[in-house]
Amino acid sequence: MTEDTTDNDGAQSPNTPAATGDDSSQSATEGETPAENTATDAGANTSGIRRRAVIAGTLGSPALFGAGFAAVDSFGLPSMPSLIGVGAASPLEQARSGTATAGQVDSATVTVDEQAAQNLPTNRYRQLHIAEPVRNMLERDRGDQVRVTRGNDAAVYTISKTISGDASTVRTSSEGKCRVSFYEDGSFSDERRWGSLRGDDNCSLAGEAFDVEIDPRVPAADLSPSEAKERDELIETLNMGGSEYAVLAPHGGQIQPFTGRQVTRLRSEFSDASVTSWKLQGYGSDTSFYRWYVPSAELSTICYPRLAELSEQTYDYAVSFNGINEKTIYVGGAASEDIRQSVADAIDSALPHDGSPVKLGESHYAADSPQTLVNRVTENQSNGIWIGQPIADRRKYSDLIADAVGSALFDS
């Protein structure tokens, strides 16, 4: 079992047996959020461009393009998403604009060299370089996510750089290409070994150019969790409540098993509390992490319509359930030490003797950046409570931990 500890989401590789850890078995109310939560068309205009369903680009080999990935060691991670309240348009308005683009943008194709790209540093295989005309049509920018689809394969990428060149140029690494190579001739195949810290460049597409579709809205729309699981898809589930508490699972489903279930549990057990909940649920046997995972500090609100709706208001407090590769449960976030300590004590008291020790977050697990999603949605980006849990505790005690968190926050 390997889990990623390179960011404060402590991403868990899906190679960990999930058992019933996904949250696809839910009530219709929880799993099938009404259609009005899905962003609607806003009718953007792109001068001189014929509009169609999606934009088709070609995944090129960036080592050949001077300003591309040849100098990858010199540039950092994408700029973080804007904080709530910044910018002329609200997150929901921007998400709706992007959805209109996804439904009507023109398509374009190019041919690029087939030479394999150079390897990228850790976690860069989720990044994409994109030509400015493509970026303009998608109405997305550096730090935003896009959905890349090739046949039956789909994965989420973060735009890390705008490049010059052909109007439909899209560039990623060899590992990035292999993220959309699980289906060959319509049949699923995963004979490659994927590590949680980086991708894999041992696939037939690594040195190839090929056509893809790019969508500015990342999750699939109008699917229930059971349908999403059957189709290896990514969806959002939003339940709007009050503005006192937001409860989040940014890596639910099979990405970090049991975390989405904890959101459902907390909301149901503390139904009298003023709670709004949101889950991003990704599915796919042994591929959900590699295709759908984005660190929560990098999640761009405008790319997820229901997250954008949640972000239309700020919350007094927010809680985020996460998976980590440690033998300790960490309670981090930007909330005061007193609040975090009360949550940690409640979890520690509730766990049986074989549960992991519980500590306040530190180092990777401090999760106190204002960009970390659980902090970002709170007033002044300062009242988030980030909970990182080993897979063993999530598998055995997910409900118990959720109940303890709820008791510490809602019964005090």
From TrEMBL:
Q: Entry's InterPro entries?
A: Gamma_PGA_hydro (IPR008585), Gamma_PGA_hydro_sf (IPR038128)
**Residue stretches of biased makeup (Polar residues):** 8-45
Cite the residue spans of the region called Disordered.
1-45
Note the Gene3D superfamilies from the entry: Poly-gamma-glutamate hydrolase, zinc-binding motif
Please, which domain of life does this record's source organism belong to?
A: Archaea
Cited Pfam families:
Gamma_PGA_hydro
Protein name stated in the entry = Uncharacterized protein
